[in-house]
Amino acid sequence: MTHFTDQQYLLSQQYKDAANLNARVELHKRFSTNKYGWNRWVFDQLKLTPGEHVLELGCGPGHLWAGNIDRLPAPCHLTLTDFSSGMIQEAHAKLGTLDGTRFKVVDVQDIPYDDGDFDVVVANHMLYHVPDRTRALSEIRRVLKNQGGRFYASTLGRAHMQELAQLVNRFDPALMFMSNAQTDGFSLESGGEQLAQHFASVTIRRYEDALVVTEAAPLIAYVLSSFSGRSLAGDRLPTFTQFVQQELATHDAIRITKDSGIFICCVGE
Ligand SMILES: C[S@@+](CC[C@H](N)C(=O)[O-])C[C@H]1O[C@@H](n2cnc3c(N)ncnc32)[C@H](O)[C@@H]1O
């Protein structure tokens, strides 16, 4: 098992709180060419109507809802869950005052709600971390209403951040930084087939975007926060920093492909 699906590692290190995730979000926030914003776009896809019951799995610190607080339908019944208690504490600190919102520590492989409790289930950038995805998808289908239930699952594609991987691997090929194999388990290329086993219709939408990075520090913070970049902290950091600064001085910006999107799944045709 790689770190990417190692539940113990995810809970005790990578996602014990939102620090690593926030370092990555910060890079996207500052240097993305599409200024509309990922969370605004995901929210558009949900097409929520007043009174719907919504479950988010692997919600992290609640970025999706914090970024759309001005346009939540009223009433809105949100259940925000994550298997990391640190993430749930941060989501609660940010969104605890939101009317009709509850927070719970939940593993997507064992959802503690009744059949048909929800109109909408959301799983953003999280299914690639789950060892037993067949079980997770059965659980998601079970808690959705038979009439009109919708599931939204965002993920990454093969090309995502490929230039960053090339850059880091030029610095140290042994790192095998962000080899795309990490998200292959549930990617824009492989996810559709898995979802079709559980849902009557599955469509995919891609979000057009790229990064043009002009500062070294946020890029380095991104690399250090990630699964395969952690070993560049400590003694090796000064040389790596110099390497990135040199790259920026030569090209005046580092251009990076983004490849992300969402699967929209319906219970009925
Ligand atoms: C890449 S983060 C995405 C967070 C948030 N959905 C977002 O898009 O900002 C993945 C999240 O999934 C959570 N996660 C990983 N495995 C999980 C599991 N088996 N059940 C529930 N949550 C899980 C992690 O704790 C983390 O918060």
Strand runs, count: 9
> What is the helix tally?
10
CATH topology: Rossmann fold
Poorly predicted spans:
none
What is the total number of structural domains? 1
Please report the first level of CATH classification, the CATH class. Answer: Alpha Beta
Q: Rough shape?
A: globular
Strand order of the largest sheet: 3-2-1-4-5-9-6
Listing every helix as H and every strand as E from the N terminus to the C terminus, the arrangement reads: HHHEHEHEEHEHHEEHHEE
- The chain-level structural class is alpha/beta
Largest sheet features: 7 strands, mixed
Average of per-residue pLDDT values: 95
- The first-to-last residue Cα distance is 36 Å
Our Rg estimate from Cα atoms comes to 19 Å
What is the CATH superfamily label? Vaccinia Virus protein VP39
Q: Please bin the fraction of helical residues.
A: 25-40%
Which CATH-level-2 architecture? 3-Layer(aba) Sandwich
List the bound ligands: S-adenosylmethionine
Strand content: 15-25%
